[in-house]
What we know:
By secondary structure, the chain is an alpha+beta fold.
Amino acid sequence: MAKVTLVEVPDRPGVAHAVFAPLAEAGVNVDTIVQNVGHHGTTDLSFTITRGDLAKTKRILEPIVRELGFREMTTDSAMAKVSIVGAGIQNAPGMPRACSPRWRKPA
């Protein structure tokens, strides 16, 4: 997996469409999308894609970043996704803590 973060995205209607429509047209599968709480008219927008689509995604988004006035685009290709699922997860606030020792690198 790879993560793409668009920093200081103008917080106005149509911007998310301007980002995700060209990616969809190019066959880039966007997985998880996180939009942070906006401040002073901008927000940060992060999403995950397959590592193999990272170069294509950067090529597609670089002109959009400039055109729409985002501060920058950052990427991270050294990440993984962990999903904890189950019917009772809503009532198990300690579950991530119980799993986290397995996520650490060996000392």
